[in-house]
Amino acid sequence: MTTEIPWLTLLIVLPLVGAAAVWGLGATSARKHLRTVAVVFGLAELVLLGLAISAFDTSDAGTYQLTETHAWIPQLGVSYAVGADGVALLLVGLAVLLVPLVILAAWREQDGDLAKLRHYLGLVLLLEAFMVAVFVARDVFFFYVLFEAMLIPVYFMIGGFGGGAQRRYAAVKFLLFSLAGGLVMLVAVIALYLNGPGGEQGFLTQNLVDHFAANPLAVSTERLLFLGFFLAFAIKAPLFPVHTWLPDAAEHAPAGTSTLLVGVLDKVGTFGMLTLCLPLFPNASQWAAPVVVVLAVVSILYGALMAIGQSDIMRLIAYTSVSHFGFIVLGIFSFTSLSVSGASFYMFNHGISTGALFLLAGFLVARHPSRSQRLADYGGLQRVTPVLAGTFLVAGLSALSLPGLSTFVSEIMVLVGTFSRSHPAALVAVLGVVLAALYVLLTYQKVFTGKAPQNLVGTPDLGAREKWVVAPLVVALLVLGFYPAPALDLVREPADATMTAVGVENPPTTPDLLSVEGSDS
């Protein structure tokens, strides 16, 4: 559905204007207002998203709406083409929700160097524009440009604003892994165009899908192209064994950067698998599915086991995400409507849950006299900082998918959908739920129970600003845990469209849970 108002373009442009405004506050008298300016633009983006959602027809969430297509580089077949289905809209909402919370969380950072804080907040808003754009891009080359452009602000946010002597190493490692995947993807993008319909709109995703449906690729060509895209997305996701950049980046990046990196940016990997790999290369996707499912199950168990053994809280949260991304990939490549819908909803829920964990961990570390991230340096804080302890527990319970929280809904959908396709994969993946209970409860025990060390006695609890940061995330986990129908309405039809594009039917044993949830809405 097209619209006279270019909602998606406005959602991309507004953060760019905000970044320019923040960077433009150079005078000493004006720089004190930069936090307020950044927050105002972040909240304005949230309001603008609400207006865009009001123009979106949720009863037809499987088709792309709010679309715009303009020639960009017609000689190369490149267009500025944007549009959103239900899944894209959900992930745009995730990005737009987290950015103002990250800005609020960084309110007191770099108090001694406002110029440095100005650059950080400008990068956050610049990154928001890229995040929104990449989820609504409907031209493969445009998508690739955004896929690579996101690396620039994240690199500086880790290397320039992180902590520890190894922050530059972590930033370079992140950049090298991402560039390696991006270069392979670029080769695949070029080959895709050469095998596609060509013309001034030769990179439009739908044009490519329609062309390959009428003119199937050679088996070897399709598989090679699939592998080129999949490798880049697996690195971004991150999927075992190309995940090793993530723990280092999370350990040394600011908490807000980790929130956006793991909560939103890494979803570009699984989103790309869902919206590019599957519809463009349906036969190759089915061919690779058994191996991908094995890698996903390994990621689930490996990430959980590594999380249990961590002594650094930021690395621990990063490894939990490796495990959770395994569930998402498992749901996508199990090829059932229920598992694909669950994986789509899981992407949103993971961003909320992990974003809360990273932000709360950042508040915790900021309260330690030495800014320590080591679990052994804490203890007994549930009596000293009860609000911090309580909200951390809720976020932790969401990471283990406790019933009543939204993560439970998406995880059970993935597991039940996978079980109907592959009993062994689902049964082994369930072990990840047990391991999640271990790493969450052991972490809470080490940090918040027992007797508080002397240097933590009198530690202040969450202030009003910090409560405003955490409250929306906790509310989202609770509300969507008890009433997930609005989100499920957005992912149900895109999942059916994906199944049709891949040419796979649901197993006869797949329960029709989605129609039950949809009727509640």
TrEMBL record:
This protein's record includes keyword Kinase: no
Protein topology in the membrane: Multi-pass membrane protein
Residues in NADH:quinone oxidoreductase/Mrp antiporter transmembrane domain copies: 137-435
PANTHER family in UniProt: NADH-UBIQUINONE OXIDOREDUCTASE CHAIN 4
Enzyme class per UniProt: oxidoreductase
Keyword hit for NAD: no
Top-rank taxon, per record: Bacteria
GO molecular function: oxidoreductase activity
Residue intervals passing through the bilayer: 6-25, 37-56, 86-107, 119-136, 142-162, 174-194, 224-246, 258-281, 287-309, 316-335, 347-366, 387-405, 425-447, 468-485
Family: Belongs to the complex I subunit 4 family.
Key words of the record: Membrane, Oxidoreductase, Transmembrane, Transmembrane helix
Entry's EC annotation: 1.6.5.11
Pfam families, per the entry: Proton_antipo_M
Annotated spans, Disordered: 502-521
Protein name, as recorded: NADH-quinone oxidoreductase subunit M
